[in-house]
Amino acid sequence: MKLSDLTLESIKEFISGDNKLTPGLSGPNILKLFNQVGYKDVYKWKDGGMPNSMSRNEYVIEKLYELNGTKELIKLLEIVFDPRHFAKDQEKDIKVAVEKINPLLQQDGYRLDEIDGRYKIIGSDLPDEIEVEIHFEEIQAQIIEQIKNAKYSIWLAVAWLTDKILLRELYKKKQEGLSVRIVVLDDEINKKHGIEYENFFETKRFKPIGKYENIMHHKFCVIDLKTIIHGSYNWTNKARWNKETISIDNSRELAEKFSTEFIDLIK
C-alpha cells in the first residue's frame, strides 16, 4: 500500500486521534499502537517521553513515512479502524470516521470497506488475502457449517451427490431464497442413489464426453462468491467413511476462478 506524501500528512491525526474523529491516544498508547506493527519504542517518562523528544504527531508522521509501501501500513490502519479500538471511546462513531478518511485514501486508489463487521483496506494493487482451512475429519459437519453460513448463493459441482443430509441443508437454503445451482454427473450412481435434483434445484447433469467418455469429476462448491469448498470428498454417503480431504478457502479471487469454471460447465 503506497500513499502520497499529501495523503500521509492528511491522515496522521486519524492515527493520533487529534482530529476528534478517532479515539485520542496518549504518547504511551501511540507507541503501543505502532509496536503492534513491528516497532519496539518505549515511552521515557523522565527523559523526554516520546523517542527523540518528538511530539505525538511528529512521531506518527515519521512512522507513516517509514511504513509507506508496506503491508504493515495496511495493518496499522485496520487496527485504528477496528471496532474494538473505537470501543475505548464510546463518543466516537467509526462510520463517521470512515466517511471522512475514505475521500483521502481514494485519492491514491484505496478505501476502507466493512466486511463481516470489520473494516478492511481495499485497493487494486493489494494482493488477495487467502484464508485456508484443511480438514481430514468430520468433513460432512464442516460442509454443513459452510452451507448454513451462506447468505446469497451456493454453486455446487460434484460428480456424485447422494448424501441426503447435505441435500436437505441445500434445500433449506433454497427455501430461504438463495440461488442454489448444481452440476452432477449424468450416470447410474446419481440416478439410483441420488434424487430428482431438477425438482428442487437448478440442475445440470453432465454427460460423459469424447471417445473415452471422460466424466466431470469436480468436487467443489462456491458460496457467496467468496468461499470455496474443494478436495477429494464426494458429497456421498460412502465418502463419510473414506479417508478424504477438503479445503475451505476464503478468497474472492479464487472464488471468481471457480465460478468461471462452474459457468462453463452450465454452458
What does this protein look like?
There is one protein chain. By secondary structure, the protein is an alpha+beta fold. Helix content is 39%, strand content 19%. The strands form two sheets. A seven-stranded mixed β-sheet has the order 3-9-8-7-4-5-6, with helices on both faces. A two-stranded antiparallel ribbon has the order 1-2. Helix 8 links the parallel strand 4 and strand 5. Helix 1 packs across helix 3 and helix 7 runs parallel beside helix 8. The radius of gyration is 25 Å and the shape is elongated. The model has no long low-confidence stretch (mean pLDDT 91).
Brief summary of the model shown:
This protein has helices at 5-16, 27-35, 56-67, 71-80, 83-86, 94-105, 139-149, 164-175, 188-193, 252-266, and strands at 110-115, 118-123, 131-135, 153-158, 179-185, 202-206, 219-223, 227-231, 246-250. The chain is of the alpha+beta class. The strands form two sheets. A seven-stranded mixed sheet has the order 3-9-8-7-4-5-6, sandwiched between helices. A two-stranded antiparallel sheet has the order 1-2.
Within the largest sheet, what's the order of strands?
Answer: 3-9-8-7-4-5-6
The residue ranges in which pLDDT falls below 50 over 5 or more consecutive positions are none
Strand content: 15-25%
Q: Roughly how much helix do the residues carry, as a percent range?
A: 25-40%
Main structural class = alpha+beta
Largest sheet: 7 strands, mixed
Q: Give the ordered list of helices and strands.
A: HHHHHHEEEHEHEHEEEEH
Computed CA radius of gyration, to the nearest angstrom: 25 Å
Q: What is the CA-CA span between the terminal residues?
A: 39 Å
Quote the average pLDDT.
91
The count of helical stretches stands at 10
- The count of DSSP E runs of length 2 or more, i.e. the number of strands, is 9
Shape summary: elongated
